[in-house]
Amino acid sequence: MSRLTTLLAQRLRRDWLQLTLWIGGTMALALAGLSGAASTYGTEQERTALLATVMANPVILLFRGLPSGPDEQAFIVFLLMPFFVMMAAFMSSFLAVRHTRGDEEAGRLELVAATTAGRSVPTVATIVHGVLANLVLGVLVAAAFLSGGSPAEGSWLAGFTAACGGLTYLGIALFSAQLMRTSRGANSLAVWALVVTFFIAGIGNAVGTPSDDLTHMESSWLTWLSPFGWAENTRAFDENLWWPAFLCLGAFVVFAGAALALQAVRDLGASIVPERRGRTDARPALSSPTALVAKLATGSTIGWMAGAFFAGALSTSLGAVVNEMGADNPAVADMLKALSAEADLEQAVVVVFFTMVGLLAACAGVQTVARARQEEAHGTAEPVLASPVRRVRWLADFVIMGFIAIVLTCAAAFVGAWAGATGNENGADLTGDAFVAAWGQVIAASVFLVLTALVFTIAPRWTIPLGWTLVTAAIVFGLFGPLLGLPDWVTNLSPFSVAPVPSGSEVDLRGMWWLVLAVGAVGAASLVLMRRRELASDG
What's the CA gap between 165 and 168, in Å, rounded? Predict the structure, then answer.
């Protein structure tokens, strides 16, 4: 027990800042959601009208939860529950990989395993650490609801659900760390599991069955294949169903148990998925530092492109789903007509989906530049810089490849949109809208690329956490700004909110020139500052 306590204390000391940011941010989102919804959708009539709009536009259900009535607290849970689970999931996934495969890859686990702690106690300590972190997150989410005078049962169920959702992905990440040879691969697998299950739940909700009064949605069977779907079907502040949350707990037990079982049968430093063997001699194409960076970024870029292609295809192919819902439910049909009179619904769907494409493109760019920090911290940058390669050229290669990754991600989304528009009578117009939205998101995503490069030159040890935090903050401002009652100037701090978009038959440039200026100025500053910066390879 003393060995477990010691390792747990070490993990808490190492992670206190990251956990404070993740848990505090989740609680802040709950508090802001309560106050924002009360001011923006203060009456039941307003909430009922919005829910009817949601039923008529299923794309909204891809990025929100499961409608469970117009009551204020149930309405807030509909809007925010998937994001409570997502934040808990990201926190848990990174925590699990950092203290398992990350420590093993860095050689720290071998030192601990050589003591009386052995190989299993560190993993058990990581599990306890993750459980405690999610428990605190769940209690604070419940406290946020209780502080606003919400009913106790629904408040505790909302917090319990968020914590259980995080535990599911803690187990998935522990399992991924046993499968993959590197922490990078384990994190990628865990994040892709999160993204895929998020979209599965969203699609399952989008094709569900709305109630006659358009205030509730019965999710389809597809939703039950996702932990996000289990969390949303607890329906806090409405039916208050506890048993779906226990499905999340059961999945955590299964994945965590499988991780412990796999660790017991594999060698230290090995993996279940074998590492691909490299060539004895490098190809001529790898003779330059630029080609080396391209090689390092290829795998992750392909992954982001695949997600973007899927999002692009959905952006132009959901018109049939919308029309089918309108045919099945006359009330939905009436709402569709009202929406069509005010704006082009299909064009709005394209814009929403390409905002998510911009997020994926920003992630591709940030991950590419963050790889420069990983190369520096692991000591593999030194041999490159010991050759006739200047620091500025070295960083510029990562920035250039990051920009190429952004362009390829948005291009993949455009190809998906073109494929999805095939057979649609408005296919040509939708493809044009997708093109405009795609290049607008290239500009927005490039802002995060150069900001991460600037952080790398000024505060290298903060490159990875701050780079991802900036992307997360921009999404929160862009997607939740109107809901939370934030002023326009705060919402417009997100590049995704001011990127050029199609508007009817024209293009709304919005903040394009400011974004282009920011990309140029910040990118140039990062390269200039890199000239005099010393290597910081101690991690």
Answer: 5
Read off the pLDDT of each residue in 345-373 and give the average, rounded to a whole number.
85
Residue 69 identity: G
H or E element at residue 209: strand 209-210
Distances (CA, A) of 146 to 76, 88, 136, 465: 13, 20, 15, 31
Phi, psi of 531 (to 5 degrees): -60, -35
Amino acid at 294: A
Tell which wins on pLDDT, 20 or 338. 20
Q: Tell me what pLDDT residue 59 has.
A: 62
pTM of structure: 0.79
Burial class (CB in 10 A: 0-12, 13-18, 19+), 287: exposed
CB 18 within 8 A of CB 90: no
The Cα 44–Cα 435 span in angstroms is: 39
Angle value at C-alpha 221, between 219 and 227, nearest 5 degrees: 80
Report the chain's C-alpha Rg in angstroms. Answer: 24
Q: What is the pLDDT of residue 282?
A: 67
- What integer pLDDT is reported at residue 336 of this predicted model? 44
Rounded to whole angstroms, the Cα distance separating 290 from 79 reads 44
Residue 322's pLDDT band (cuts 50, 70, 90): low
